[in-house]
Amino acid sequence: MSKDVPVVATVEELRAYVRARRSLGERIGLVPTMGALHAGHLSLVEAARREAERVVVTIFVNPKQFGPSEDFARYPRTLAADLGSLAGVAADLAFAPSVEEIYPPGFATTVTQQGPATAGLDDRFRPSHFDGVATVVTKLLNQAQADVAVFGEKDYQQLLVIRRLARDLDIGTKIVGAPTLREADGLAMSSRNVYLSQDERARAPQLHVALSEAARRILAGDDIGKVMDEGRAALAAAGFDVDYFEARHAETLAPIARREEGPMRLLAAARLGATRLIDNMAA
């Protein structure tokens, strides 16, 4: 029988736990989440377990990464169910702070980036998003002082933002990217998938299909610009409102027109109704 996962709500308690485990020579893995956990999140816990003896999972819906017209108020908050899921993968500790614990009265500091945070992808449609991500992740890495932190590749631009901030700010935590977990029909797992209507859910895998087809054609030598234009058009014909469907350099997110320019990542964001889906794929 799986044991209940202890929960702490303050930075002091989190640091006390980390100090105690470190005194025993154990490495600490960190998995930052906003809760509403699904199998994709649990795969991050398992990836962290391969890197460390103890795994801490943070559950915090970060208000600073939501724009004024986004879904902060209705973002699913399912702490009891999340703790049950974490018990099933033997997470060692959950850190579930309040907004006031993370951003106490008078909080006045923001971490702002250039580089991958200003690549003209998600930042073009969510201008303050990566400032909010960079700020909260910097705080969580500092609070936990973990040996390794695991983030999903589904949020690929975010992963590069976090890797860059860790390098630039001399944060000692190793940042690990874990592969995207998918439903049987290819849809990338996401907490926001619950917002899809039955019809939208049936169409949603077309985002993965479009990326897969684009990757296949590019690897076969087709013109990258033409392939991406046609993929964009196919998604629009399937009822998606496309924010972007782009071929970018996998390490810098700079636009890329020829395979010889470096490793490539295809990235997409599109809306079905009120739900915004993102996905990406190596090519």
UniProtKB/TrEMBL annotation:
Pathway where it operates: Cofactor biosynthesis; (R)-pantothenate biosynthesis; (R)-pantothenate from (R)-pantoate and beta-alanine: step 1/1
Alphabetized Gene3D superfamilies for the sequence: HUPs (3.40.50.620), Pantoate-beta-alanine ligase, C-terminal domain (3.30.1300.10)
UniProt keyword list:
ATP-binding, Cytoplasm, Ligase, Nucleotide-binding, Pantothenate biosynthesis
Q: Where in the cell is it found?
A: Cytoplasm
Q: Which InterPro entries match?
A: Cyt_trans-like, Pantoate_ligase, Pantoate_ligase_C, Rossmann-like_a/b/a_fold
| Gene Ontology MF annotations | pantoate-beta-alanine ligase activity
| Primary location recorded for the protein, binned into one broad class | cytoplasm
- The residues the record assigns to binding ATP are 34-41, 152-155, 181, 189-192
Catalysed conversion reaction: (R)-pantoate + beta-alanine + ATP = (R)-pantothenate + AMP + diphosphate + H(+)
Which residues of the sequence carry a binding annotation for beta-alanine?
Q65
User: Where is (R)-pantoate annotated to bind?
Assistant: Q65, Q158
The UniProt record lists the EC number as: 6.3.2.1
Q: Name one Pfam family in it.
A: Pantoate_ligase
List the catalytic residues.
H41 (proton donor)
Q: Does this UniProt record's set of keywords contain Nucleotide-binding?
A: yes
What HAMAP family has UniProt attached to this entry?
PanC
Homology family: Belongs to the pantothenate synthetase family.
Biological function: Catalyzes the condensation of pantoate with beta-alanine in an ATP-dependent reaction via a pantoyl-adenylate intermediate.
Among PANTHER family, the record links this protein to: CYTIDYLATE KINASE/PANTOATE-BETA-ALANINE LIGASE, PANTOATE--BETA-ALANINE LIGASE
**Self-association and partners:** Homodimer.
Q: What else is known?
A: The reaction proceeds by a bi uni uni bi ping pong mechanism.
The molecule here is called: Pantothenate synthetase
Q: Which organism is it from?
A: Methylocystis borbori
